[in-house]
Write a structure and sequence with these properties.
single chain, 430 residues, alpha+beta, eight-stranded mixed β-sheet, four-stranded antiparallel β-sheet, 10 helices, 34% helix, 29% strand, elongated, binds zinc ion, Amidohydrolase
Length: 430
């Protein structure tokens, strides 16, 4: 009798064997909805900043253990890794959820609103899940329960990566991200493919978005110091003016995107965000400091933009008789969805979301440290709708703001698509 489903399964583009688990996933995910919402609200009300997610981590670890999943705690400071070995041999599929909140004071009137406060960079602030990582944790806890319930049917191993500090740790002398550190601690060594999702406050519930190849930008910090020679403001000829030189450099940098980057392949951004120099009307200062951000969509483009920034800044300074020191700090690489894996999993996304609910995402100039996992093994990062049905995205508060709000109606779809990734991938790669 089982053979009868073969043509249908082949039509959907997925190998036989595991798609038959989809109805069971659907049933289990729906049954878990209220539990996932409850977990999410509890985490939302108790947000923790990067590398301080101890309460969240304990909740996750206790839950995974209760499901019989092997648990490792304290990975990359506060991360939790769960390993669920299926009943049959096969590949290892990693699923990732980030756990950290942000130094934002919640303004949304919810019964489970965060009232947590802390001191951050010397300032009093609230703490809020203003990027929706609370939903990622709750959804992945739900996925763990769904998959643990079909353990004997799984053709491979599922690795749950609950990651701290996606938003980064910016302390004196330390700049790091949870994903980077998890990779350094070896979590990706035995993994064949990695999947992650991000909830979107401006994408309607019921929708899933993704794109193949570069999807989110890589981000780097830029610092340029222009050294001139101090002079009286009334006799500029007696010095070298770093302010005029800096103005030329800022303008020169604009030509990188317009004249050097192949914008038909992918856009890039160079933004100077601050300029500091001088103290009063009639003193030409000795130096000017500029800081900014660079966004690129791949290693080659990133190398070109970095090279041109350095050339433009140093040569413009040289032409003025000044000197420019350029310092670029690489932060996250671009989030690049492996094209082969993306193509392979397209039918799983369509099957989970349904016709008309799959969005071809535009490029996003924001960044995600999921990229560190993707640099190790093929990975796919998708977006999940979290805006109430019929909402207007242009009037809906964006991520990282005090009014950020997530509609909980998309959690079941999140569980289903992540679970489909696991069983469908295993079915194809066993
Ligand atoms: Zn964020
Ligand atoms: Zn985020």
């Amino acid at each position: 009798m089982k053979r009868l489903i073969l043509p249908l399964v082949l039509l959907s583009g997925v190998a036989v064997g595991q798609t038959k688990l989809r109805p069971e996933i659907d049933k289990k995910a729906s049954a878990l909805e209220s539990k996932v919402i409850e977990w999410r609200r509890d985490i939302h009300q108790n947000p923790e900043l990067g590398n301080a997610e101890t309460r969240t981590a304990k909740k996750i670890a206790d839950h995974l253990r209760s499901l019989g999943i092997e648990v490792q705690e304290g990975v990359a400071v506060t991360g939790v890794v769960g390993v669920l070995k299926g009943g049959k041999p096969g590949p290892t599929v990693a699923l990732r959820a980030d756990m950290d909140a942000l130094p934002v004071t919640e303004r949304v009137d919810l019964p489970f609103k965060s009232t947590v406060t802390t001191t951050y960079n010397g300032q009093e602030t609230g703490v809020m899940h203003a990027c929706g990582h609370d939903t990622h944790v709750a959804i992945l806890m739900g996925v763990a329960e769904v998959l643990a319930g079909m353990q004997k049917d799984l053709q491979g191993t599922v690795k749950f990566l609950f990651q701290p500090a996606e938003e980064g740790i910016y302390q004196e002398g330390v700049t790091t991200w949870g994903a980077k550190q998890m990779v350094e601690e070896g979590v990706m060594k035995d993994v064949d493919a990695v999947f992650g999702l991000h909830i979107g406050s401006q994408m309607e519930v019921g929708k899933v978005g993704y794109r193949s190849g570069p999807a989110m930008a890589g981000v780097d910090n830029l610092e340029i110091t222009v050294h001139g020679t101090q002079a009286h403001g009334a006799s500029p000829w007696s010095g070298t003016d770093p302010i005029v030189t800096s103005a030329q450099i800022v303008n020169g940098l604009q030509t990188i995107i317009s004249r050097n980057v192949n914008i038909t392949a992918a856009p890039a951004i160079v933004t100077v965000g601050a300029i500091h120099g001088g103290i009063r009307h009639n003193i030409i200062p000795e130096k000017v400091e500029m800081i900014g951000t660079i966004r690129t969509f791949g290693d080659e483009q990133q190398a070109l933009v970095h090279k041109r920034i350095t050339e433009i800044a140093t040569h413009i300074a040289e032409s003025a008789g000044a000197k420019a020191d350029v310092n670029i700090e690489k932060l996250y690489p671009a989030t690049v969805n492996d094209p082969a894996l993306t193509e392979l999993m397209g039918p799983s996304i369509l099957a989970a979301a349904g016709e008309g609910n799959v969005i071809n995402n535009p490029l996003i100039t924001g960044a995600e440290d999921f990229s560190f996992f993707q640099r190790e093994k093929p990975g796919l990062f998708i977006s999940l709708g979290g805006m109430k049905k019929g909402g207007d995205p242009t009037k809906t508060p964006s991520h990282h703001t005090p009014d950020f709000y997530i509609d909980e109606g998309g959690f079941v779809l999140g569980m289903r698509v992540m679970s489909y990734f696991v069983v469908d991938y295993m079915g194809m790669k066993k």
